[in-house]
Structure formats: structure tokens, C-alpha cells
Amino acid sequence: GNVLYRAMLxxxxxxxxxxWDVAETLDAAQRAKRDLVGLKLGREPGMRVxxxxxxxxxxxxxxAEHYGARVVGVTISEEQARLARALCAGHDVDIRLQDYxxxxxxxxxxxxxxxxxxxxxxNYRVYMDTARRLLEPDGLFLLHTIGRxxxxxxxDPWVTRYIFPNSEIPSLRRLVRALDRRFVIEDLxxxxxxxxxxxxxxxAVSALVAxxxxxxxxxxxxxxxxxxxxxxxxxxxxLWQCVLSPQGVPGGYRRPA
Length: 257
Description:
alpha/beta, 7-stranded mixed sheet
């Protein structure tokens, strides 16, 4: 429920890996992640942005508030949509309870932060075809996803059963195959070690809100968080940000300093 996530994720309800380049707190690191995404996509007032898997609207609100963007965010979670609408109130943000495959229109930029892990390899091409259809020919798409080092079948069976049903972490090979003849890879950035630090903070905060969780769920949740903290610290999993363009940026793409 949102009570747990509001306590666990901090001020702006940012999820997925934070960017700890210079930040010292979780809120600051999540803001830095959103700024990093904005810089990589190019911040232009009035641009139309699609946030695929918008969660509680943290990036959608950030893009509208700081870049003057017009943002559509889609989620299939009723709880997320309800709170995201409240958190984004007063900004040019349209939060929709909608499957990303049903979105219509064209967008200057697309961002998807921590949703691709739930697509599954059999849907990778549909996902990329949808993003390609929705993106303007001169647009940019930033995909932020956990990545694995091998060609395994999925996440740990225990995690799949109790935490993230039907989830699958992509390998780079499978990701590139899904991009074939759909997008040009302009930039690939790995900062997976930052996920270990992100999860360390989340573990500490989760312990403080244990009373909001049933005891059996609390044990499973803490095991999951600690399991993934260890895997990221050991570099068994990665965090990739890929900047993609439909036809290649004329003259080449430059990652912002």
C-alpha cells in the first residue's frame, strides 16, 4: 500500500536506483537521478514527454516542474495512479491508468524508469515497437533498467513467487536484439553499484516502518531487499541507462557532463 511506500521511498516517492555521484541522502540521490535523466534527454520547455511505468509520478512531476514539459504518465496500478495524481496536481501532468501499448499520439521524449524488468522477453519487441511508434523521428528515448550478466531465464524463483511475479531481468544481448532495426543506441551507462547503496537506505527505513506491515510480509520484504543489496554489491546485477534514437542523432549524441 501507499503508506508503506511513502515511508520507504522518501519525499518524492522516487523508485528504482538513485544516482549517488555527489548526493548524501536518498531524496537528494533520487533528485540527482531525475536530473541525470533530464540532462540525457535534453531539457526543452514545452516538449511532450511520455513516462512509461510512471510509478507515483516522481519523474513526471520533475519534468513538468523543472523543464516546462507536458507529461503523460501511464501505470497499471490503481494505487499508484491515485497517489500520483495527487502528487502531480497543479502541474502539466496527465496520469493515466493505462497499458503502455494502448497509448496514442507522438512524443518528443520517452522515459521508462524501472518498468522494463516486468515486460518479459516475449514482449520486448512489442515494447520497442510501441516506443518507436510513439516517438517523434527526432526524439530520444531513455530506458532505465536492471540488467543481468548472463542469459538466464529470470529472477530468483523465490523473488518471482513472493515479490515480483512474472518479472524478468534482461541481458544486454536480449535487449540489443529487441532494438534491432528499431533504435540506434546513442549511449549506454552502467551505475549498478549505486543500487546497493540505494537499497541499503531502503532497508534501514523499512525497519522503521515494520509496524505498517504484516509480520510474514515484513520478513519476506527485508529478505528481498537484503538479497538484492548483496547481489548489486557483488556486481551480479547492473543498472543500465540507455539513450536511444529512432534514426541516429545528426552529428552524434553527447552524454552531458
